[in-house]
Structure formats: structure tokens, C-alpha cells
Amino acid sequence: MSKDNLLDVLIAQTNLSKKQTDKQQKIVTAAISLFAERGYANTSTSEIAKGAGVAEGTIFRHYGTKDNLLLSVILPFIKDSIPAMAEDVFNEIMSQNILCFEDFLRALLKNRIHFINENREIFQIVVKEILYNEELRKELQPYFIENIVQRITKVINIYKERGELIDIPSNTIQRMFFTFIGGYFVSRFVLLADSSVADEDAEIENIIRIMMDGIRKRSQEM
Amino acid sequence: MSKDNLLDVLIAQTNLSKKQTDKQQKIVTAAISLFAERGYANTSTSEIAKGAGVAEGTIFRHYGTKDNLLLSVILPFIKDSIPAMAEDVFNEIMSQNILCFEDFLRALLKNRIHFINENREIFQIVVKEILYNEELRKELQPYFIENIVQRITKVINIYKERGELIDIPSNTIQRMFFTFIGGYFVSRFVLLADSSVADEDAEIENIIRIMMDGIRKRSQEM
Amino acid sequence: MSKDNLLDVLIAQTNLSKKQTDKQQKIVTAAISLFAERGYANTSTSEIAKGAGVAEGTIFRHYGTKDNLLLSVILPFIKDSIPAMAEDVFNEIMSQNILCFEDFLRALLKNRIHFINENREIFQIVVKEILYNEELRKELQPYFIENIVQRITKVINIYKERGELIDIPSNTIQRMFFTFIGGYFVSRFVLLADSSVADEDAEIENIIRIMMDGIRKRSQEM
Amino acid sequence: MSKDNLLDVLIAQTNLSKKQTDKQQKIVTAAISLFAERGYANTSTSEIAKGAGVAEGTIFRHYGTKDNLLLSVILPFIKDSIPAMAEDVFNEIMSQNILCFEDFLRALLKNRIHFINENREIFQIVVKEILYNEELRKELQPYFIENIVQRITKVINIYKERGELIDIPSNTIQRMFFTFIGGYFVSRFVLLADSSVADEDAEIENIIRIMMDGIRKRSQEM
DNA sequence: TATGAATGAGGATTCATTCAT
DNA sequence: CATGAATGAATCCTCATTCAT
User: Fold this and answer.
1) pTM recorded for the entire structure
2) Per-residue pLDDT tens for C164-196?
3) Under an 8 A CB cutoff, do B163 and A217 touch?
4) Rounded alpha-carbon distances, angstroms, from residue A147 to A4, A154, A192, D157
5) Which CATH number characterizes residue C48's domain?
6) C136/C55 same-domain check
């Protein structure tokens, strides 16, 4: 996999992306659908070329290597994985005491489910390759931790201070948070990718209900 | 991948496994460690042979195809994935009102964490390949549903009737259950495979705490 | 071997053959000489590549499989196996009472001996593989019967009606005809491929003499 | 292929054949049927072993190499290919003016058709391998020429002297003789191996009729 | 004598990548 | 820029043969 720092590539990628030609677009589109369907390792560049209606050489003219094509597919998605409500906006809103954690969670879930829904295939690629490709995993991990984990931890801390969350180490809450949300995304969009969700809102409320209050029946609720 | 019913292969596998020769053991061991490290598709049979200190032909003499070697690695693990406390034992205990759901959860977690801990690498292989290899996924899914999902659903129903669990469809509880537990296993044993857990018991209690009661701080708990 | 109807392949083959590149020509030439010398099954693609001065991959880029290469070698020959004097020309000439059977036989022999002489190696391949390769035999048989056997039968019928040929079933005459002519071609161009024929015309006259009048000495000839 | 003189092997073979054990018999039987069905090159020793119900090693214990097994299958047949009515018997009969050439031909055909019928599979092997396997061909050719061709030539000479056969070089007659008879055997027992002959005697008479008198209709016969 | 596990050279085929046009 | 022919290393797999038991 690429030896450069990921962010450098990312930036380069961003700049280049303006110039994306028609053929490049076709290549990326074909690659996305093939990588998602059968995985990076099981997709040949000739299949991508055929799928894109392009000569095989053209792929290498634009992306140099197959690895690089994978990155070109994944990186824009990764960048957008940072919740749209980015840092400052985020802090601002919360400082105004507008949201309780439950509302935050609701907003986050809606936002991210929407985002992944719009990018199902790339999400599948990222999930599969992060598990399959150790090198890629190691490259992306710091980015995730820095940009996503840390922000969520910050949020959790804020709500803990407000007394909305239980008194166990933030780190533990955060891990359980990612386990549950991440697990949900993977099972819904990768493992059960074929099935559809009947009532999106009810689904989200169920998740929130269980994350917030667990599955134990409470006497006062009876 | 194999065209026979999984269970048939599984049984055949079990019966044949008695005759495992020394070289077969070495091959399987090398395969497990390589498949776990870089995935089935990225591991060549010649690497496995080298890792096992065996001629490449020997692999094919014993396993016929690379696919078959993968199955030979995975199937015994799959079989043992059914919680050791098998059906009857299970029902028996529960019919005696001995356990509350929390205790059941604790027992299950301890048991399965132990099991996976003893089979980390194979677990990694199974997780990776189930995501990566559609054919394998489709072959294993019915087995999982029949043997694991259904049993857990049965248990959830029992505890719901006893009034221990919230009144939402069992199906929903079950999905959240697997999302959380599965997500936990994957993040702990695959994604964060390198790091170790300091206090196993505390970890388990945290999981139980959050699954049962969520992350909301309750006034009466203050 | 190919699953499509032979004629389809044949036609496709013919159309594609225009684009034959330099390397393709070299590959086919090397394949012909090697297949003829030691048979399809005993010739490796690496030998063909070496013989053609080409990388092994190049063979597969152009022909996909070794089987396909064999077909690409054989089919153009098969197509041309239909006597050049094709159907209509054939019937026309004969309807004009120009030829007696003996003249027809002479023309046919000269024409086909010339053709096979120009394609000795491919003829050897076809003969060997038709005997060795059941699948190929079954694929080619209908073609031979439809295009060659039937035409000859038609001719035999015509000459029988003219009273030039003995009154035994046409089918029998035809079988003896192919046995003798075919046997001659095989023994001359395959079994005794090394030796040469001194007096081509005398050879042909001998064949005609024996096919027409047998080997018995007749009193009136003394 | 074996480097020893064929006759030596042949003799050794003959001597050994007395000691043929049960397993050897099974191996040879399985080999015959498999070689005939799909050819020597396409039959693996493991298939033969399986077909014979024997361990693969056993084949090599008895025959040393696969090539040698082929010879062990072929040689006894070759030896018996010399018309049963062997030399002296032969000459004797003929010196008594008992037979005309037609009768000789009839006797020969009946005898050889019967022999090949009893050894169809080995005949198929021999024909296929003589064409396919140059080394084997070169090894067997001298034997054929010495034992079969020469005897027939002698016979032809005798009948020519008696004025029964046409005045063209014996060599030519002999070649046409083998072309026709050989072509007949191959087409009947190899190419059309599946179909059966309705009236054996009529078939033989047709062959004789055509070999002796050709296919031309004669006026005096009308 | 018979076995069958083990071998490793060799076979067909795939594929990322290069480069002349 | 785009092409696609060419490459050759690497892949999975087959098979005749050997040898310890």
C-alpha cells in the first residue's frame, strides 16, 4: 500500500478530484461496484476496465497501481466520515444546552445512516478492506482515532459532566458506543445488505432506547 | 466453494479428523496463522507449504483444493461455536428458575470469550471471510441462524415471559443483542487484536451493565 | 472443449482471423508444429511460447485456453476440408455428363492430396486428436457427416444411377470409399509422413485402378 | 519409453506373465479400460490404482513406470497380432493349392475381426498410441514390418505367381491391402466403436468383393 | 509384498503492470 | 491522453515416482 502519509495522499487526492475526467469517473464507479461486490483482492483490473468501458492501460495512466485506485475510492469517503456537523458547529450547539445526549444520538444516527445509505457500496468496501487488509487498517486507524473517536469522546465527556451519562470511565462508554453503533452499521449495511428496514424512525428509536436504558424491564415502567 | 450441505461436510470432517497426520496438523496450523494474518485470498498455497515445512503437493494430497483447506480450518470452529451449554442443559437450568437474564448473559459471555480467546486466529479468519467471501457467508448463514440465533431467541422469549426484559419484539431485542455482543467480539478480537484486556471481570460487568441498563444515568442511582 | 455449436465458433473464428497479429501468427505456427509432432496432450503451453518466441501469457491473452488454441488451429483447416469444388459447381459439372466416376475420383484425389500436402501438420493434428480426444471427435463428427459424407453419398448415387457403379447399397460403397481414401491419407501423411512419393501420378492411378477394379487379375486382361 | 529392444522386453514380458498375481491382473484390466477410454496421456496412475482397487505404489512395484505399464498392456496383444495361422501352417496350406486368394482373404478377415473383437479395448489403445506416441510408433514399426507386412507380402507374391492378382508391384498391392484392411479395422473398431455390425458375413463379403473387383459395374455382370 | 504419505517438477491460467503506437 | 498488446511472475493444482513402514 502507499508509503506516503495518508493525509498527504488525501490532500493530493482532494485537489486532483476537481480534474476528474469522464473516464476517471467511469473507472471509479466501476471499481466501487466491483470491489463492493466481491472484494478488492477478487477483482481484477481488467474487469474494472471492462466495467468502465475503458482500456486497462487507462486505469494505470490515472491511478498508477491498483492499490492506488482503492485509495482513490476509499479516501473521499473516509474524509466525509467525519460527522457533517463538524467540530466547531458541534461544540457551539452543545454549549447552548440545546441538546440532551439522546437528541445528539438521534441526530448522529439519522445523519450517519443517511450518509452510509448514500454510500452503501463504499462503506462495504471500507469495512471489508479494513478487516482484510492489515496495511490499510494500520493506515486508517490513526485517522479514525484522531478524527472520530476523539470527537465522540469529547462529546461523551461533556454529557457526563452534565450528569446525563453513567459514571464509568469515558473510555469504556466510548468503546461500548462504537461497538454498538459500528456493529449496527456493519450488520445492517454489510451483512444484511439485501434486506431493507421497514420503519426507519422506529428502528432509530429502538437503538436509542436500548443504548440509553438497556433491555431490562423496569418496575416503574409497568 | 463446496456444493454439499454444510452439515454433511461438517460431519464428514469430524469423522475424518481422527486420522489427522503430523503433516496435516502442521499444514492446518500454518494455514490458520496465515489466513488470520492476511486473509484467505492473500495467502498462497506455497506460503502455507513453506510455513508448514511441507511440499506444496502435500497440501493438495490432503485437502484437494485451497477452498477445502479453508473449510477444514473453519468447520470445527463453527461446530464449537454453539455455546457449550447446549440446548437441553440450557433449558433444564432455566426451567429451574435458577438464573436471571443477567446471570445467563454473564455465563454466556464468560464462556464465549474464553472460547474465542482460545481460538483467536480462527475467529479472525471466520469474521474476515464471512464478510469477504459471499459464497462462504451464504453457506454459513443458515447454520448460524438455525443453531445460534434461534436458541438465543428462545431464551429471550423465556425471560420476556418472566417479565425480565422490555416489551419490544423479541426479534428486535435479539438483533440488538447480536449487534452488541458480535460487535464486541469483533472489535476486541479482530480490530484490536493486539491490545489486551486488563480486568476481564470488570470488562464483562461493564458489558452487562450497559446491555441491561444502558448508559443513561438514573436519578435513583445518584 | 467449447460448448458452442462448432459452426458458430467456426464463423466467429473466420471473422476474427482478419486481425491476426504477428505474435498470433507465431503462436499458431509453433503450436501447429508441436501439436503435430507430439500431440496436443503432450505439448505444454510453455513449450509453445518458447517455440513462438513469445511470453506464455501472450498465448492466453489471445486464445484464452489451450483448448481454444487447438480449435483455432484446427477449425480453419476443417472448413477448407470441404472439397474446393463445392456443391453447386460439383452438381453442375456432373449434370453435364462430362465426368465418369473415375475422372471424378481422379480430380478429387489430386485436389485433396494437394490440399493435405499443403497442410500436412494440421492434418496430422486433426487425425491424432480425432482419435484421441473423444470430446473433439463428437464435436467434429456431425460436421464431417453433414458436409463431406453426405456430398459424397450424393455423388455415388448419381453415378450408380448412371450405371457406373456396382449394385450394392450406396451406404456400403460410401463406407468402403472413406475407408480406402481415408486410410490412404492417414497412412501416407501421418504414419509414413517421413517418406515421400516418387511418382505422384502413378500413385493416384494405382489407387483409382484398385478402387475401381480391385486386385483380381482378369482373364480378358491377359 | 523403454530403451531396450522391444523383443527383449517382449520376451521378458512373456516369461513374467506366468507369474501375474491377482493384483497385477486387476491393474492391467483397469489400465486397459482407462487407456482405451481416454488415452494414455489423459489417464493418471492414481485413477488406475483406484480402478484396480490397489494402492498407487503397487503399480510401480510391479511395473516401474507408467510407460512400462503401457507396454505390459500392449505387448501381449502385439504378439498375438501375428495371424494365428502362423508361418509354417500358412505355407503348408497354400502349397497344397487349397486356397484361392479370395479364400485366404476371407479366412484372414474372419480370424482378425474375431481377434480384435475379443480385444477391442487394447486395439483402441494400440491404434491411438501408435498415432500419438512417436516413440512407441518407432518401436513397434519394425516389429509390424518384420512380422506382418513381410508375411503378407510373401503371400501376395505367391498368389501373383499363380496369376490370381494383377500385375503391379507387390509392394503397391501390399500397401493398398493394408490401407484398406487397416482402414476398415480402425473405422469399425475405433471410430465407430459404438455401432454394431448387423450381418457380419455380408460385411466380410462386401469387403472381399470390393478388394477383389472394385466398385465398377461390369457389363458382363449385368 | 503392499501400502499410501510425501514429494517437487511441471502444467494451465491469471493478473498487475509496462510501453510503443 | 488513450489504447491494448505484451509481459512474466505468481497461482492453484496434477501427477509420476519414491520410500518408510
Assistant:
1) 0.88
2) 999 999 999 999 999 999 999 999 999 988 888
3) yes
4) 19, 11, 28, 103
5) 1.10.10.60
6) no
